[in-house]
Specification:
about 270 residues, alpha/beta, two-stranded antiparallel ribbon, 6 helices, 13 strands, about 30% helix, about 25% strand, globular
Amino acid sequence: MIDRWRQSALVSFICLVLLGYHQQKLILSTFYLPPSTPNGSLTWKEMLPFFFRRDILACKTYYEFGGVINRLPSLTFLDGQKSVCLDQGVAPVPDQCVVYSFGNNGEWSFDEQIESYGCYVYVFDPSVWYWKHHHSKKVLFYRVGIGEKDDERNERGWKIMSLTSLRQMLNHTNTIIDYLKMDIEGGEWPVLSRWLDDGDLLNVKQLAMEIHLENPESIPGKYNLLQRLEASGFTRFFARENPYTTNSYLNKYNVTGPSCLELAWYNTKFVR
């Protein structure tokens, strides 16, 4: 009787170990961001999981600043919040930190909350018509858009400046940017490419982007850009789909998943 009980207990223990190993392997394969791999043999559908992944071990403590509740007839969700890693070395230092916020569409929740944390916030958006330069004590607004190059008046009549030019304008050429947020509705890809070409992110501690995947033809180029970003020393600690876009664009290509994602990285050169 005792031997039978021992055998049963041993079998149960082995099953639990195997189940735990399988679950751990599944979790890591789903959420752990693997090292960069060549994409020559990958189809665009095979590249898609890369955009949704993050390194779950990268940031011990992160906090989502900002966000407002959006209510639609079929969906209620929080939008506009951005994840900030608060681990030593990469965390913004209160009363010293500098934040660049590209694109806010007149919605100030992130900018105001990161200001209350203790940061100086510089907001850029050419589409906002009603504004004050001094939005609050530590939040300054500029009716200028971020771009890959300077343009005094683009096709929409907006003034566009490169990151290099903006930093020169603000006398921030050698300033560490603690957090750079870019939410510019699909215009992020050429801007990111320029930043990588010019080394503009070397003095940026954390980067957050809302990315848009759109059509299949664009997927390989976007895949390569994020591979370049992460090969340059940026670790992706956060990834979340925008619930408003779940299955929206890519549904027509017989692929499930969102076309819009919120991603965040930190620069490993600042890790202690």
